[in-house]
Design goal:
The complex is a heterodimer of chains A (114) and B (111). Chain A is mostly beta strands. Chain A is built from no helices and eleven strands. The chains are: A mainly beta (114), B mainly beta (111).
């Protein structure tokens, strides 16, 4: 059974640029959630996708957007990067109707904004 | 708004010295409380889900318990490989999406 994978592992961008992060869900899982984790903090919920539709959103501005594909993989896009966007971005997959079921996390993408 | 508070922020134990980590939560209705372990620079690793007060779950040297206001993660006779940050998260009933996390307890186990 393949676990959650994310790419890239690390990324360095400059302020104002745009970035796309990718996530492949665990085999058989149909729901993907994205979290942002600043250094020394717990993960903060960005949004969740279920059956290619957004199924809940946290307190993040619209420049954070996402997609889910028919194979349940997902992308997180961030426009107009700010210094405070530097963080570990985590993807989690789960099985169930819109988030029910345990969320299993990938290894994360470390984004640095200069 | 859901709130999760974990204590202590950091804990240093000697190998074999048992202790407990606390997670206090405020939520309108609890769907589930989750414990994860996170190693530096890596994603959280799932440990336990607890659904109702009085429930207990065990895995090797770890045991998680749940009351209506808090959860405890008991670590019995820890080993250095148990060193990690332990995260607690809650999922509110009616919102089958987000997990709300605490800031974690950093555990260091020394020889």
């Amino acid at each position: 059974e393949t676990g959650v994978t994310q790419s890239p592992t690390h990324l360095i961008k400059t302020r104002g640029q745009q970035v796309t992060l990718r996530c492949s869900s665990q085999s058989g899982h149909n729901t993907v959630s994205w979290y942002q984790q600043a250094l020394g903090q717990g993960p903060q919920f960005i949004f969740q996708y279920y059956r290619e539709e957004e199924n809940g959103r946290g307190n993040f501005p619209p420049r954070f957007s996402g997609l889910q594909f028919p194979n349940y993989s997902s992308e997180l896009n961030v426009n107009a990067l700010e210094l405070d966007d530097s963080a570990l971005y985590l993807c989690a997959s789960s099985l169930g109707t819109g988030g029910l079921g345990t969320q299993y996390f990938g290894p994360g993408t470390r984004l640095t904004v200069l | 708004e859901d709130q999760v508070t974990q204590s202590p922020e950091a804990l240093r134990l000697q190998e074999g010295e048992s202790s407990s980590l606390n997670c206090s939560y405020t939520v309108s209705g609890l769907r589930g409380l989750f414990w994860y372990r996170q190693d530096p620079g890596k994603g959280p690793e799932f440990l336990f889900t607890l659904y109702s007060a009085g429930e207990e779950k065990e895995k090797e040297r770890l045991k998680a318990t749940l009351t209506k206001k808090e959860s405890f993660l008991h670590i019995t006779a820890p080993k250095p490989e148990d060193s990690a940050t332990y995260l607690c998260a809650v999922q509110e009933a009616g919102t089958a999406s987000k997990l709300t996390f605490g800031t974690g307890t950093r555990l260091q186990v020394t020889l």
